[in-house]
Fold:
Amino acid sequence: MTGTPATPVNRLRPRRSCLAVPGSNPRFLEKAQGLPADQVFLDLEDACAPIAKEGARHKIVDALNNGDWTGKTRVVRVNDWTTHWTYRDVITVVEGAGQNLDCIMLPKVQDAQQIVALDLLLTQIEKTMGFEVGRIGIEAQIENAKGLVNVDAIAAASPRMETIVFGPADFMASINMKSLVVGEQPPGYGADAYHYILMRILMAARAHDLQAIDGPYLQIRNADGYREVAGRAAALGFDGKWVLHPDQVALANEIFSPSQDDYDHAELILDAYAYYTSEAGGAKGSAMLGDEMIDEASRKMALVIAGKGRAAGMSRTSKFEIPEA
Structure:
C-alpha cells in the first residue's frame, strides 16, 4: 500500500538549517515563522513533556494551517514507535493539517519495518482524507547502534524517504561514549569519533538519492563550537544541520552554502565544459580553464557546488568568456 504521488515531489529540498521548535509552545511556534531557516520541524518528541503531548498535537495543527511558513520545508517530528503516542501523533497531525505538511520525521528508527509502518499509516490517512497519496515525505532519525547497522535498509524502505538524520545525543548514550557534550570529541580518543558514523549515514543517503542531515549542537551560545562541528559535517558532504536557537540559523545557512568564490568557479566550469564539448568549442572531452584541466568528472563536482549555491539563492559575480579564435 505504499503510495507514489500523482505529481513529482521535490525530495531534495533546501535543508541547510533545520530549526527545532517545541510543539507545545505557541510563542515559539509563532516566532519560528519569521526566522530564515530552510526547514522547521515542530516537535512532539523530546521537546514536549509527556503531559503536554496531546495538546501540542492540536497546537501544531493550528500553526500549520494558520501560520505563514512561506519558503520553509514544514516537518513534524512524532514520537518513536516504541511509545504509545506515535499513531495518534501521525493521525491527528496529518488528518488535521496534511495539506500544509511536507514531511513526518520519525525518531529512533531501528529497522526498515518502522519506516514501512509509517508509510502504510500515511497512505491510509491520505486515502481516507482524499489527499494526494505519497506526497508527504519521511525523515528517518538514526539514534542508536541498531539503527546505524540497518541504515541502508532504512534508506531504501519507502519512496517517501527524503533524509537520514543523525541524532548524536541518544547515539552517544547508546554506544556508551565517554562524553557529556553532544557532538564534541570524547576525551582520550585522538581521532574523529564521529567520522565512521557520519560517513555511514552519508553513504546510505547518497546511495538512495536522499539528503544527509547532522543533528543538534546543544551549547547554543558557543558559536565557535557550532561552526567547528557543523563544518565537519559540511566538509564531508552533509546537506544541513539542526539549529536549536535563532542565533544558529545564520551559521548553518553560511556553513552549508558554498563560498562565493567556489560558487562562481563551479558555474564557470559548467559553462566552459558545455562550450568545449560542443561543436563550436571543438567537441573536446577535456579542456583548459585557465590553469586547470576540466573534464566530465569536473562537471559532476561542479554540479554539486552550483546546485547548493542556486538552492541558497546565490548570484554569480563572474561569467565565462568564449576564448577568441
